[in-house]
């Protein structure tokens, strides 16, 4: 930002773990189990990771992204006890560094905070009362932020994108009530359009908002602007640079938006569609990718700042996007020439029939044929054991060439043997090989598929200090050889108990990658689904009788608007079914889900697996499955692997007893 002509730079938005968690601590709103913790960072990290006797706050996916936020909890003891000293100090440093005119403090809005919080049944609070309690707190905070001398304040209200009619009255009660006056207020939403009712309120005259920042890369934002216009006294923050992908601006997509905004005589700014935390940092660090044909159309966070100036010049008529057009043309020509299996994959997708998406027998018919001899309430894990320092050293040595592939695989086989031995010793019934060979549940599979690119330093945050390097889909995806069969055979040879084949589902691979932008996500999902289908066939040929196809990211790609949501869920579930519908009736297919289900239960019910597993299962999870009449197998998760806290055996036992009040014992697998 310092090296470019960017007009405004956000400050106060650097967080040591999670933005929602930080605001939970700033507001001093915490559940009873953390009341003895020292306030500030000690309590914040206790809420993030848990401590003895106090499990961590729950995690949820942030809107439609792979980022996880910590869910604020309000119980009968929770009281607002705000302390904004650390936040204000961060803002002050930013103002001193960038200047009062350029520095823009960022605040998580009160309506969104209340929307993301959960309220315990033991509390008398409601969402409405929580919002009311937050009003005087935020009013005082904004006065202090204004006193820093800044000219503009960003208030992030991501809840604007939810299709929830109950939120609009809250927005109207908060704004302009909390605003201090005489400072520009920029209200920001992202990852989806805000819907008709919220849009009309945002561009109305009496809400105290001066700048409205909207995402033009997802949803139907331009349609809303065309239909309802935009208030002449306000400025539109046009999110034209996609902050959630790694591709450069596509002139054929962006220029028509610019043309329309100019024709409507709207006063607007050019900006990213949201925070750049969802993109890798700097393409200049990618020495290997720089030699690829896609290099000239890739753009990481730092490059997107440069694109801001180029797009802004095109919008003002002082520049154009001709260089971008040339780069994309060269890339598409080279891609078609280099794609290894484009014609084969395209033909397979085009020739899919209805029967390719359905198992050969229904659940009731195939279930008695599966895992014959396995005891009631069989125990298993959801797959991976920890990646130790020794395993990472082996991988680094292989990459450097100081360890041969033969020696590396022998060392990995020792790790598999260790994992099998632990599970045998513990008496588990369905074993896993532990996945020591895998860097990441998506990256590892993508590395075995043609059509994927991989960065060296393209890390993005998943939660806390956990970061991932999403693959980049650059052409048609093809899976020519086995991915997991070698390790499966090693593990199964060590035990007489069944070993699960462990695969990642097509929607998770798609949603945890940076997808192509020249074909639909649906087509990409079907291509990946065919690759996983082929791998299931290879595992079966190797003797595997139980296979888990994980889809933890099914929900996060789901749009907020009802029409788009149903369209997405239809093709997403079809892609998943395509991946495993070819399995034998005697093969038990598991899937692991770790998302909220309430708003997509019918779709999850259409995923015709033999066992569905949920990582943080509770009574609400079971009730959701009961509402749709779900009758297949279920695998409740008893042990929270995201927290270092070891749960008591008694707690797990009681939790399982509660589950069995709702579940058929013969169809329950204990995870």
UniProtKB/TrEMBL annotation:
Keywords: Amino-acid biosynthesis, Metal-binding, Methionine biosynthesis, Methyltransferase, Transferase, Zinc. Its EC number is 2.1.1.14. Pfam families: Meth_synt_1 (PF08267), Meth_synt_2 (PF01717). Its cofactor is Zn(2+). It is an enzyme of class 2 (transferase). The keyword Coiled coil does not apply. Residues 3-262 form the Cobalamin-independent methionine synthase MetE N-terminal domain. Catalyzes the transfer of a methyl group from 5-methyltetrahydrofolate to homocysteine resulting in methionine formation. It comes from Chaetoceros debilis. This is 5-methyltetrahydropteroyltriglutamate--homocysteine S-methyltransferase. NCBIfam families: PRK05222.1 (NF003556). Belongs to the vitamin-B12 independent methionine synthase family. GO terms for biological process: methionine biosynthetic process; methylation. Residues 377-671 form the Cobalamin-independent methionine synthase MetE C-terminal/archaeal domain.
């Amino acid at each position: 930002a310092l090296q470019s002509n960017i007009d405004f730079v956000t400050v106060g938005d650097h967080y040591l773990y999670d933005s929602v968690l930080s605001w939970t601590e700033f507001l001093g709103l915490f559940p009873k189990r953390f009341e003895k913790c020292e306030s500030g960072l000690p309590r914040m990290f206790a809420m993030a990771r848990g401590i003895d006797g106090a499990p961590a706050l729950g995690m949820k996916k942030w809107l439609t992204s792979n980022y996880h936020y910590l869910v604020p909890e309000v119980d009968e003891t929770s009281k607002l006890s705000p302390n904004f000293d650390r936040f204000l100090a961060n803002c002050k440093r930013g103002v001193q560094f960038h200047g009062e005119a350029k520095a823009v403090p960022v605040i998580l809005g009160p309506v969104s905070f209340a929307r993301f919080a959960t309220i315990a049944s033991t509390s008398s609070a409601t969402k409405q009362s929580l919002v009311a309690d937050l009003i005087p707190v935020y009013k005082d905070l904004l006065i202090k932020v204004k006193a820093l001398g800044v000219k503009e304040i960003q208030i992030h209200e991501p809840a604007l994108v939810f299709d929830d009619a109950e939120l609009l009255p809250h927005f109207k009660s908060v704004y302009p009530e909390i605003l201090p006056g005489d400072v520009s207020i920029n209200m920001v939403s992202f990852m989806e359009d805000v819907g008709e009712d919220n849009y009309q309120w945002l561009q109305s005259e009496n809400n105290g908002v001066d700048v409205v920042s909207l995402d033009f890369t997802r949803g139907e934002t331009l349609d809303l602007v065309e239909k309802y216009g935009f208030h002449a006294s306000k400025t539109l923050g046009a999110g034209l640079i996609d902050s959630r992908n790694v591709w450069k601006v596509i002139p054929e997509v962006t220029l028509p938006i610019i043309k329309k905004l100019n024709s409507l005589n709207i006063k607007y700014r050019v900006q990213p569609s949201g925070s750049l935390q969802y993109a890798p940092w700097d393409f200049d660090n990618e020495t290997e990718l720089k030699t690829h044909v896609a290099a000239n159309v890739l753009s990481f966070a730092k490059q997107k700042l440069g694109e801001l100036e180029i797009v802004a010049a095109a919008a003002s008529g002082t520049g154009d996007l001709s260089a971008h057009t040339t780069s994309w043309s060269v890339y598409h020509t080279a891609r078609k020439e280099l794609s290894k299996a484009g014609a084969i994959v395209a033909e397979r997708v085009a020739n899919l029939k209805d029967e390719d998406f359905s198992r050969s027998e229904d659940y009731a018919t195939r279930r008695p044929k599966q895992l014959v001899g396995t005891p009631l309430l069989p125990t298993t894990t959801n797959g991976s054991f920890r990646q130790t320092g020794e395993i990472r050293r082996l991988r680094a040595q292989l990459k450097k060439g100081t360890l041969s592939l033969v020696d590396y695989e022998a060392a990995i086989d020792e790790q598999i043997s260790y994992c099998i031995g632990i599970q045998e010793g513990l008496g588990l019934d369905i074993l896993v090989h532990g996945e020591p060979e895998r860097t990441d549940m998506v990256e590892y599979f993508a590395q075995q598929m043609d059509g994927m690119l991989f960065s060296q330093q393209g890390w993005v945050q998943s939660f806390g200090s956990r970061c991932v390097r999403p693959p980049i889909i650059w052409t048609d995806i093809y899976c020519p050889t086995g991915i997991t069969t070698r390790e499966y055979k090693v593990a199964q040879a060590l035990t007489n108990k069944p070993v699960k084949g462990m695969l990642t589902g097509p929607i998770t691979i798609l949603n945890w990658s940076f997808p192509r932008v020249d074909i639909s996500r649906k087509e990409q999902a079907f291509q990946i689904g065919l690759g996983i289908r082929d791998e299931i066939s290879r595992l079966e040929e190797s003797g595997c009788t139980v296979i888990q196809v994980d889809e933890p990211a099914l929900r996060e790609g789901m749009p907020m608007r009802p029409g788009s949501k149903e369209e997405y869920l239809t093709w997403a579930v079809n892609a998943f079914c395509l991946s495993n519908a070819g399995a034998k009736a005697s093969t038990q297919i598991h899937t692991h889900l770790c998302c909220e289900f309430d708003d997509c239960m019918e779709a999850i019910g259409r995923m015709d697996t033999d066992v569905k597993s949920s990582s943080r299962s509770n009574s609400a999870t079971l009730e959701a499955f009961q509402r749709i009449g779900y009758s297949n197998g279920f695998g409740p998760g008893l042990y929270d692997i995201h927290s270092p806290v070891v749960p008591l055996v008694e707690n797990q036992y009681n939790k399982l007893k509660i589950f069995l009040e709702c579940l058929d014992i013969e169809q329950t697998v204990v995870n």
